[in-house]
Every structure is written in C-alpha cells, then in structure tokens.
Amino acid sequence: MGNQRYQGYIKHVDTDDPVISEINWFIDTVYMPAHKRADKSSKATRTLSVLFSIWAFTLLGVFAAAELIPNLPIFTQSLIWDGYDFNWVALAVLPSFMLAVFVSFRNYPFKHGDNNFVGDDEFTWRKRQSFVLASFNLIFLVAVLFAFTKPLICLLGITCAAGFLLTYMSNRLFGFTSSSIRNQTMVFSLERLKREYEVAIHSEEEFEVDRIQADTFKRLFLMVEGMIDRRDREILGDHYKVHNSAFDLVKGLKK
Asked: pLDDT tens digit string along 120-134?
C-alpha cells in the first residue's frame, strides 16, 4: 500500500479560508525562508567550529608534547614515509582526521530515499555542504603526511584556534543558530495554530465560525508581535554576550 501519512480524523480546511491563507502566507513567505537561510549558515559555522577545535587540540597537542619533552623525537621525520620507516607520530594523528570527516557528514541527509526526511532543495545543499566541509580537512591531512614540521604544525594549530573563535563569534554576532531555531519554532507554532483552527470550526455553525476566525486572527498577530520582541531580545543579547566575552578576554590578557 505504500508509505501513507496519517492525515487525522478531521479533514484539512481549504486554502481559500482567510485564516488558513493568512497563516500559510506567514509560513511560506516569512518564517520558513528565514529558517532555511539561517539554518545553512548555522550548520556551517557550528560544524566548522567543531572541526577547528579538533585540529587545534590535535596540532597544538603535538607541538606542546614536543616542547615539554625535548627528547621525544616527534618532528624527526617530515614525511609519512621516507623510504625506510613510517612516521608513527603522523599516523597517530590520523584518528583526528577520521573524527573530523565524521563530524563533517553530521548533517548529510542519509534518509532522502523515503522523501520524508528533507526536501529536494535541502537535500542538495546539505549534501554539497557536507562534502565541502569534509574536503576542508584535506589541508591538515596533507600537512601531517607530507609537511610534518614543527613550525608548520604550530602555525596551523594557532590558525585553527583563531578559526574556532572566528566561527563561534560569527555565529553569535549574526545570530545564525538563534534565528534558525526561532523561525523553526514559529513555523511549528503556526502549524499547530492552523490545526487547532481546523479542529475548532469542525461541524460548527456559521456564527461560531466567524467568532473562531476572529479569535484565531487575534492569536496569530499576537504570535507575530511576540516573535518580533523575541528577535530583538536575542539580537541584543547575542551582541552583549560577545561584547562582554571580548572584554573579559582582553582583561585576562592584561593580567
């Protein structure tokens, strides 16, 4: 019989209904597009933050070990294979590469086949984004396997630490994650309001339908107004948090 979604006992109201039409307009024109735009940047910056942190801990950890234990021959070989022996230290870094690749594919839409997990457009950009993020790790793999020198590893480690701070602060300052969640929550709330309206007017008389429509419109615009207030609070809150974090960091460096 195929995979059929449960539609509920009460049928959906026609889109010509003024309430349903207005709710659909907010979902399709305002909140769902805003969620999709922010979701792309949110997933990219959050995943990059994790990748930068993985490589920063790995590379700076190797550099710190070489500094703290001078007799440990970590950087005696710059290549993974010099014709005589393997560079076992470089091989020990490979699990970090595997972990980074795994993290890169955390948003890959593996369940596209049943057409219930993501839509066609979202499937495409998630797939492309995952492969781009996975390719990002090749920079560090090449450095570890073919240019495993102390200055380069230190430079890449510091760059990764700076990259982590940059992607994290970019996410907070531009509000990618908060915007994505905020608009997604609003879409869910509007879908619920729409279903509540459909249930409420089921088998009701004409005068009752008019009253329910008026109440639903009132709830709808209260939700929109609340959404605007929430957006303003979150934007200001993100800027204040980044501002305070930056000043705390500067104060810590002065000490």
From this structure: 677 888 888 999 999
